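User: quick one
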Amino acid sequence: MSIHTFLGRFLSKYLGRPSLNTRIFSRLQPLDLSWKQKAKSTFSEPNQIHSVDEKGNRPMNNLNKYTNRTYTCGELGKENVGELVSIMGWLEYQRMDKFLVLRDAYGETQLIISDEDTSTKELLKTLPLESIMEVRGTVSLRPKNMVNENQSTGEIEVKVENLIVVNKVLDELPFNIRSFQKAKESLRMRYRYLDLRFSQMQRNLRVRSELLMKMREFLINNHFIDVETPTLFKATPGGAQEFIVPTRFPGQFYSLVQSPQQFKQMLMAGAIDRYFQIARCYRDEGTRPDRQPEFTQLDIELSFTSVEDILNLIEDLFQYCWPKFSNPIPYKFQRMSYAHAIENYGCDKPDIRFDHKIRNCTHLLKSNETVSTDHEFGAYYISFPKEYAISSRRLKESMSSLSKSFSRLKFVQSIINSREEWVKIMGSLLTVPTAERILDDNELENGSVLFLAYGNKGEVLQLLGKIRLEYVNFLENSGIFVRKKGMHFLWIVDFPMFEMSETTKCLQSAHHPFTAPNINDVTFLQTDPLKVRALAYDLILNGQEVGGGSIRIHDPSLQKIVLDVLKIDSKTVQHILNMLGSGCPPHGGIALGLDRLLHILMNTNSIRDVIAFPKNFEGRDPVSGAPSSISDRDKKLYHIKVVDSDMDI
Amino acid sequence: MSIHTFLGRFLSKYLGRPSLNTRIFSRLQPLDLSWKQKAKSTFSEPNQIHSVDEKGNRPMNNLNKYTNRTYTCGELGKENVGELVSIMGWLEYQRMDKFLVLRDAYGETQLIISDEDTSTKELLKTLPLESIMEVRGTVSLRPKNMVNENQSTGEIEVKVENLIVVNKVLDELPFNIRSFQKAKESLRMRYRYLDLRFSQMQRNLRVRSELLMKMREFLINNHFIDVETPTLFKATPGGAQEFIVPTRFPGQFYSLVQSPQQFKQMLMAGAIDRYFQIARCYRDEGTRPDRQPEFTQLDIELSFTSVEDILNLIEDLFQYCWPKFSNPIPYKFQRMSYAHAIENYGCDKPDIRFDHKIRNCTHLLKSNETVSTDHEFGAYYISFPKEYAISSRRLKESMSSLSKSFSRLKFVQSIINSREEWVKIMGSLLTVPTAERILDDNELENGSVLFLAYGNKGEVLQLLGKIRLEYVNFLENSGIFVRKKGMHFLWIVDFPMFEMSETTKCLQSAHHPFTAPNINDVTFLQTDPLKVRALAYDLILNGQEVGGGSIRIHDPSLQKIVLDVLKIDSKTVQHILNMLGSGCPPHGGIALGLDRLLHILMNTNSIRDVIAFPKNFEGRDPVSGAPSSISDRDKKLYHIKVVDSDMDI
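Assistant: Done. Structure below.
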């Protein structure tokens, strides 16, 4: 009894099913590859299935090295006609049990079954799409009227001499691999191994791999050293959003690092003076859309450097690694101070793909208001010309609803139909002279739309910044307006060193406690800390933050002063103070968020489309269902008990 | 009042200390770099400080790009004499406040302070070694009798024109950066940022970075795609040694992956048919020396492949990436079956750098023994010739103590002084004819040392395998014996599919449950599973395992059979079964343990010397003291309570 026969019986008995593909083990047997020798007589090296492309193109043969195929499904052409080939892939399509399309990651190839080959025709009758096949056959030209110019293999077809079903699809698949039938995202994520077969997902992951490699190449060429730093580290005191990991020591936990910040500074003290790492980082933000509990950043740090040097480094890096298929990017990126960004765009990551900045009219309204002492008063507006003035109730409501979260502000939105009408309506609110002056000072035309807000200056700018984006989104979705195309990088510099926490009303670091102050502002560290600018910078791409960094404090005395300003007990970072006092060079660095960068580069709907196995918006793994319960043995090993969060601990 | 003066007062007041280095902020000020232009007039690009090496060597200038220095401390030579340069680094040495040595990661440069420069001389009087300095000065030739040929910069010195103390060492350092005064490992690890300054640690990390990059290059050139897979995943049911991570969902935990196994198989089903990743993996093995809770592996998987292909791939990879400073390695690695390794070396990772194999003499002793039914009987010995026969009590005791953990075996160790004496002594144990036959059959000379064991065959081989290594370690430490030099790679193939767990007495996977069986042995899957060989392979280097992998099961029916043999509930890996049934190509892969590989390559005392920030043998981070306690807020957030492990849960 042959193994195959045995196995057929064995499996059908075992699974209680009458029929099963008896060829399932065929790929496990050593293939007789002597026919490959016939197919090409120029083989020299044992592993080199076919020789370098005669046309001098990048040879594709490496793609088939270490496999049982001679070609991918994307590479056969006229020049292969007459050749005996072996190709493998997924059954994408079949018609009349005669014409098949075999697909792999690299393309599709059309197969023809000869009319005499009844056994293969019989096999195909019950073979589901997406089954894995191995095909041997001879390449032949397609009839002229069958040539498909949109297909890389559109001039040829393969006349099948031998077809093996290597792995049959068992049950009906939850969705087809047809781009015009895109499934819902939740289903795509649950069956990610199917979703990855779509060419767009293939492309996203392949571009990701290529971009990361180019980044490494640039940095290695510039003598940066790739150092892997731990992810199991000490819980930061008071550090929020850190996952914890129980250990076999009762009551003692690692935390998963949010970034390699402390380690990279220690590398600088350790004379690894040019460091990089494509680092996995962890942040528990609960359920926030478009955030992932684990994410990847390109982490860079170097010694004896300056803000200018680091900005240059990153510009050179992008120049080197930016893919050719995307829009070209400039050698130097635009720069903007934090203060300018807030004053003109109402946020620290301005979208500069369109103008329509926020305008200051504080001088016109100041006299109208009883100025409060607990905040700086400001009056600002943003306007759009006649052609962008939309009378849409939905739009108006959406703007009003934005303003509602700033309840202490006065907010006006209006289309200026005529000067007279506007002054009449607005006069009651602003006084007639002020309403007139706003029109006069700002050269507002009839037909313009105007959003005006006044009150707490910070909040006014924040509101108008949101309105600017929301209004343009609406215009763009309505087809009335188009943002500038391309990739618009922007540096934001001169960030404040500290900010007032809205929840605790205490000072906190705008970047992190190891960021160096601007030397010109050091005198304000204790007298007026909110005035101190940091040597920190963010990189913005098309209105989204894709990176940020700073020059770090290298002097332990200054570090202690900053910790004291922040009311952080310096004992909790004593190892950092010791490190700074042990001979630590001045240093600085940056981290680029690669997931978001790729999301913008590939213009995907969400960050999840550039990640192979993303978590969903709840932080769950849709494939395996993680997180899940654990065994009592584990609970015992790690000395923990699960409790209701409302209970006392 | 200048900032510096202010700051001096401010800091001294703040810290209550009378004097502090007032120059600590000097590096934060923009440097006047116009003098750089004078130093070299050929600057063309703004970032290119000096042009390509005239000698045609690899240009070093990239090392100084994006920094404030013009040269490293390792690159100045005769050709720079007369040049005004800027170098930065650690004060390594000083004599008479006049001769200094400045060190950075790339070398040392000698500095000379002019006798007139009394202020710098004064400064140096109290400056501790390892402080960071920035020096500007002119390169000049050393007097002939002062040339140091062992130093890359030994022909020159820099006459100091300006010296700034950038960061002064504050307290006495726990150890000096002097290679002849190596500190204890616990101290080195606690102050890792000091330890990294040693040239050996610098070299280890730099070679690591280079080797990993070469591996990536090879794989990318062969069209493998670098895909990052999640580390937060589902707890494997019954999976031991997995760290768990509590989430905001009460009672639900992620686990940290032990390897990307499931993800890489899903990539194969998803048509990412050539995958690699330098992956962080996690394993909680409690306190085991030379193991790390997190470690790095080069993870590879490809579709439509075979054992032969994967072995070729790895051989080609090593050929490409192996550093030139190490011993060359062969194009093809030796191969050995698991059975052969066990029979001849008593273990599955034989050290083939010396011979002295284990010999079978079962046929001579079998008749002597009442053969037990619960195991296979075996009698084996290992011998060393006269020149390696050591009469050492300590050695003899150490061998005896090894044998004590195999209490059911009979074990004999003896030097054969003369045939007569040996037969006399052994005759009582083995019977005289058997004792004689052992000598005759095995051509043992007078003066040889012999270790003989019999009983349970598996245990006999295990014991003699340990004795083989231990004895040779002793010989080598005594200077009597030397193992073959160089790097000896070895493939172990034909592993068993299953093994009997010693603790549970149940079948378990020798590799993992997704490993494919050898087609020739499939018939034994249910009848005699221990007889089934797997398509699994390990890579051994100098007697240590540095990698392992297998061809995986691609057929869902076969996977279910294997799960049933292992008594694993297939529901727990239903997503894998679904994936295999969705059109999954045949595939296989391998993972290489990079920490151990580098440890062997760099010939370090421990695996910790090739890791930037290793945990100690207890799994603690010596720098920060992690793991540590967490806040009540965190416990509440993650719904856990710390309990005494003896309590009921």
